[in-house]
Amino acid sequence: MPENSNPIIETPITLAGKIMEFAGVLLLIAFWVYTLSHFEQLPDIIPTHFRTNGDIDGYGSKWSIIFLPIVGTLMYLGLTVVRYPHKMNYLVTITEANAKKQYLIVISMFRMLKMAIVIVFFLIAFETIQLAMGFPDVLGKWFLLLVTALVMGPVFCYLIIPSKNA
């Protein structure tokens, strides 16, 4: 299989990109603050796993709640560091003429995906903390649908938008 021959061009960050990055960092900070500010109030044993219908089917130490912002942060940073749009696969042929536009689309998709991942982990922590503290389940059966939409939304956008902007 031939090596990817997409042109390597500079893709400076746009104002929208700066806003998305700032919003993503704010979400991460809010996620950590929320989790840590509720940590002491949590019982020693908290829900750690849920069925698709929202029922709790696993419990663990309250320390397990700390893994959620850690994993969310690592995933956010991982997607921030991987910034090689010329190495991505595209549905359209990348040329010198369309490369910058296509690269900016895929970079924007990664920014949306980063924020979606942080929101998903934040929602998991929120639900876990709410249930552990005896509050009612807020998202219930809608949780899985919401998570799927948040993660798959940017990916589907990425599949549609580039072909319209070829």
- Main-sheet strand order equals 1-2
Average of the residue pLDDT scores: 86
How do the SSEs run, as a string of H and E?
A: HEEHHH
Question: How would a textbook summarize the main sheet?
Answer: 2 strands, antiparallel
Rg, Cα atoms, Å = 19 Å
Query: What oligomeric arrangement do these chains adopt?
Result: single chain
Please summarize what this structure is.
With 166 residues, the chain is mainly alpha-helical. It has helices at 15-39, 67-81, 99-132, 142-164; strands at 45-50, 56-61.
List keywords for this structure.
166 residues, 4 helices, mainly alpha, two-stranded antiparallel ribbon, elongated, single chain
Describe the fold and architecture.
The chain has 166 residues and is mainly alpha-helical. The protein has one domain. 58% of the residues lie in helices and 7% in strands. It contains four helices and two strands, in the order αββααα. The protein has helices at residues 15-39, 67-81, 99-132, 142-164, and strands spanning 45-50, 56-61. A two-stranded antiparallel sheet has the order 1-2. β1 and β2 (56-61) form a beta hairpin. α1 packs parallel to α3 (99-132), α2 (67-81) runs antiparallel to α3 and α3 packs antiparallel against α4 (142-164). The longest helix has 34 residues, at 99-132. The radius of gyration is 19 Å and the shape is elongated. It starts with 14 loop residues before the first helix and ends with a helix.
